């Protein structure tokens, strides 16, 4: 199973969009149409790379747009670039989401005591930057789940699932969160620090975590992913109120939101044509320094 992407609009502008196609060339939703599993028997999941490692543009699956293309998040009308909090340049992993998952804002998690953040569940691919290339924006990779961190973001549960690309030459050495701690010493602490501090340059307080910032293991993480898949199933079958979310799908044939290839084509045709990128603002390269807590 393979996927491709098609750019519309101009990169580094609010009209930029990245649409997805399947092997047949049909436009699809990365939220709803890419299967959650690459290999269900082995618990290998698909993940959509939204933000390649070392980059700053806060790209995300546009859950409230038809076909859910990738687009850059806006903050107070301005394009959002994640700040560089020393010593970390941009995102320190290939960052993305697992398709066909949904953190239900109507469900209060029994462990965190908070409701979901209304998005697909996030992943941080920890593959080595030396032995495997940095992923491309919109790339669909196959990943092993190793553990998870429970970020509490402005009162909402926002799981960060730690994964490794199965194509990474080191992947066979990583099977649980303790393998990360043993083989990449300091990486989990760096991940915790990154999520704690990344909004501080915007004038917000440090983020908080459930479980006192403890990373939960593989089994816990896989159960969490599967729970969010169950919430997504209720969403796509209209058993849960979608609110402002767009559930347009071309491949989930039993969904009331399923649309024709022609309807999907019309969505893409309505987007601005692809054009030359605007430059990244110099502010995206600014560094911020804080005392370690």
Residue share in β-strands: 15-25%
- Provide a count of the helices: 4
Give the overall form: globular
Structural Rg: 18 Å
Mean pLDDT: 96
User: Portion of residues in helices?
Assistant: 10-25%
What would you say this structure looks like, in words?
With 293 residues, the chain is α+β, with helices and mostly antiparallel strands. 16% of the residues lie in helices and 25% in strands. It contains 4 helices and 17 strands. The strands form 5 sheets. A 5-stranded mixed barrel has the order 5-11-13-15-14. A 3-stranded antiparallel sheet has the order 1-2-3, with helices on one face. The longest helix is centred in the last third of the chain and has 19 residues, at 218-236. It is globular. The mean pLDDT is 96.
Offer a quick outline of the entry.
With 293 residues, this protein is of the alpha+beta class. The protein has helices at residues 177-183, 187-197, 218-236, 261-269; strands at 4-8, 17-21, 27-28, 37-39, 44-51, 59-61, 70-72, 74-75, 78-79, 84-85, 94-97, 115-116, 122-125, 140-153, 156-165, 208-209, 287-288.
Helix and strand layout, with pairings?
Layout: E1 4-8, E2 17-21, E3 27-28, E4 37-39, E5 44-51, E6 59-61, E7 70-72, E8 74-75, E9 78-79, E10 84-85, E11 94-97, E12 115-116, E13 122-125, E14 140-153, E15 156-165, H1 177-183, H2 187-197, E16 208-209, H3 218-236, H4 261-269, E17 287-288
Parallel strand pairs: 10-17, 12-15, 13-15
Antiparallel strand pairs: 1-2, 2-3, 4-5, 5-11, 5-14, 6-7, 8-9, 11-13, 14-15, 14-16
Write out key terms for the chains shown:
5-stranded mixed barrel; 16% helix
